[in-house]
Inverse folding.
């Protein structure tokens, strides 16, 4: 028999169909090494000395993935007309077809697919999924339970060169599949009503958004005026094909890639005094504010708003050339604020990442220039990770969670991490990590306690403390009201 034999072709087709449906067929495929071709062998006949191809080898066929949620939404239409159209992204020359409705970013090549109930009698299109009614729910990923309770098994075919090539079909149930992986640590819906506001979507802020989306946070507000540049791509989660887009849009799409049901509001605002009225309601609506901006004025503006609106904020930043990093958590009027931090530890507060060419030049190595925002993504991610963990604990406040045990460990206002013993810093003489030591070393986080400044202009009683220090009786002072 040869490939041109119609009976052999039918046997190959039947065997491929059986493989795609992962059920044993009456024929099986074997690879005939002498003829260098696939042949079908009927059950009971003597197979040639060749490789058997079984359902486990079904990866030789392409795969097609359809959204179960979409299919339920469209069920009424499908049931009425017996077939409906759907769009799929075709990846890798047809090796994988992914339902366009499954996520926010389809690929560049779209294939039209017909989804048909078995009774549809129109001519076979190039790509089709056929739903066949069955009596019981199977364990395979191609089973679909319709809104009326009826059960179907999906098979899929690609029509090519006069033949139907089977595709391995999966009906994807996104939310159950995602929450199943988190169960035990974070229960399915525990974070679905919590909301995070991100100020600044650089590397740290960008990664933190995506990590919280993976944890199941559903509501995000993103504030950043910048666009993704080519140079950003070396550290930012956004990729080269996104260059030029606003970072709020790049990150929104990455969040939706991880949690398609998330609600993401975007605000391409600068953090400046004139925008505070627009940002205030976003702070008020948030359960936590994550601030990853790299300059002091913007941090102090956000600090002021968060204290006034009584919302916990976490601030993260890398030190220059990412020799280390720090995270500050501010619980308004409970723990020291960003302004208290600047007063208590001015050097640490000033040692932030380099974000302008002038600043880069000022600290350049003598023999070569330092790029703006130098530092590897690798060196920023531990800071983003710590920042996200603190934000997650705030979002879980009041919720039953096994992560509560961590509150003991995350009780300091400020956390410090050192990446290397950078010369010219107080940490240049640290002992090697390999020595067992009680001294500070690289690659550890240190919780650092310090007190609130009672005279802090942002969170303290500045007026009374200052008046008392200077022996001024405030009752005798007339304070002009704001014009
Ligand atoms: Zn303060």
């Amino acid at each position: 028999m040869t490939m041109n034999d119609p009976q052999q072709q039918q046997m190959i087709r039947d065997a491929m169909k059986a493989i795609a449906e992962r059920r044993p067929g009456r024929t099986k495929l074997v690879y005939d090494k002498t003829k260098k071709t696939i042949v079908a062998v009927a059950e009971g006949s003597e197979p040639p000395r060749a490789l058997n191809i079984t359902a486990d080898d079904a990866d030789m066929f392409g795969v097609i993935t359809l959204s179960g949620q979409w299919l339920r939404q469209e069920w009424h239409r499908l049931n009425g007309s017996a077939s409906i159209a759907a769009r799929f992204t075709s990846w890798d020359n047809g090796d994988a077809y992914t339902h366009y409705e499954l996520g926010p970013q389809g690929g560049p090549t779209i294939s039209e697919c017909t989804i048909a109930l078995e009774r549809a009698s129109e001519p076979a299109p190039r790509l089709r999924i056929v739903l066949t009614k069955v009596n019981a729910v199977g364990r395979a990923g191609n089973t679909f339970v319709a809104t009326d309770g009826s059960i179907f098994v999906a098979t899929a075919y690609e029509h090519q060169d006069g033949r139907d090539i089977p595709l391995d079909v999966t009906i994807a149930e996104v939310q159950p599949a995602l929450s199943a992986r988190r169960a035990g640590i974070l229960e399915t819906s525990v974070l679905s009503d919590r909301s995070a506001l991100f100020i600044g979507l650089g590397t740290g802020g960008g990664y933190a958004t995506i990590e919280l989306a993976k944890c199941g946070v559903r509501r995000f507000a993103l504030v950043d005026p910048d666009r993704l540049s080519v140079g950003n791509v070396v550290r930012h989660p956004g990729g080269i094909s996104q260059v030029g887009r606003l970072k709020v849009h790049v990150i929104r799409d990455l969040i939706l890639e991880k949690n398609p049901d998330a609600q993401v509001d975007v605000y391409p605002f600068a953090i400046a005094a004139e925008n505070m009225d627009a940002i205030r309601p976003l702070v008020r609506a948030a359960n936590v504010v994550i601030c990853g901006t790299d300059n002091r004025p913007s941090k102090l503006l956000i600090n002021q708003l968060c204290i006034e609106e009584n919302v916990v904020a976490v601030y993260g930043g890398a030190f220059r050339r990412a020799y280390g990093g720090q995270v500050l958590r501010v619980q308004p009027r409970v723990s020291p604020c960003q302004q208290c931090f600047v007063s208590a530890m001015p050097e640490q507060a000033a040692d932030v990442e380099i974000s302008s060419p002038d600043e880069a030049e000022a600290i350049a190595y003598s023999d070569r220039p330092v790029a703006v925002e130098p530092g590897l993504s690798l060196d920023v991610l531990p800071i983003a990770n710590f920042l996200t963990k603190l934000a997650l604990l705030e979002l879980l406040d009041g919720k039953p969670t096994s992560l509560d045990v961590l509150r003991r460990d995350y009780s300091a206002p400020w956390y410090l991490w050192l990446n290397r013993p950078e010369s010219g810093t107080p940490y240049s003489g640290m002992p090697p990590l390999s020595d067992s030591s009680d001294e500070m070393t690289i690659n550890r986080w240190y919780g650092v306690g310090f007190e609130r400044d009672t005279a802090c202009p942002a969170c303290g009683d500045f007026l009374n403390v200052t008046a008392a220090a200077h022996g001024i009786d405030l009752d005798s002072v007339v304070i002009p009201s704001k014009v």
